[in-house]
Specification:
binds heme C; 7 helices; mainly alpha; Four Helix Bundle (Hemerythrin (Met), subunit A)
Length: about 150
């Protein structure tokens, strides 16, 4: 989780202009995200560890299919992002930005047709993929991660 978090933060800061963008750093962070999501994320919470050591794990045990679906979903997005990062240019270009390539009829990709994104995440701009990845982080945490404050 911590490496995944650091990688997501690195990419987010590059796109937000809080950190200097560099193509190699983007690639490395996207590869980390890819490596830590999907099957690796599922393996981090093995079945049968119900109850211990954290409350989170107990809930995962009870809703295993949903947990695994989320882990695989974020994995697919991270794969697509890693492909984009592998071809990333030396500077952030317009077509990497949120909103690039959205349909002219007002962004039906953003939510109303849930199937659209799943159909081909590779068609989305890098920044949009990043936002979808971050949404999956929150979806999973709001359901499975015990509040620690
Ligand atoms: C499929 C579910 C799932 C997804 C997706 C997910 N997390 Fe988590 N995350 C968890 C769970 C469960 C915990 C709590 C672990 C525990 O209490 O044992 C956690 C804990 C954390 C922590 C606390 C530190 C730690 O190691 O416990 C951080 C930071 C974190 N996640 C960041 C992220 C980021 C960033 C993303 C997206 C790139 C993400 N997570 C995606 C399930 C998920």
């Amino acid at each position: 989780m911590k490496e995944m978090a650091a990688a997501a933060k690195t990419i987010a800061e590059m796109f937000d202009g809080k950190r200097a963008y560099d193509a190699d750093g983007f690639k490395a962070a996207a590869e980390t995200l890819k490596a830590r999501t999907g099957p690796a994320l599922i393996a981090e919470f093995p079945e049968g560890t119900l109850g211990a050591p954290s409350a989170a794990r107990m809930e995962i045990g009870q809703a295993r299919p949903e947990f695994e679906a989320l882990a695989r979903h974020i994995g697919r997005l991270a794969d697509a992002l890693a492909v984009k990062a592998g071809q990333a240019p030396a500077a952030i270009t317009g077509d990497m930005r949120m909103g690039a390539m959205l349909p002219m009829d007002g962004g039906s990709l953003l939510g109303k047709r849930p199937g659209a994104v799943e159909a081909d995440p590779a068609k989305l701009p890098a920044e949009h993929l990043l936002h979808l990845v971050l949404q999956d982080c929150s979806s999973c945490h709001s359901k499975f991660r015990r509040k620690q404050q």
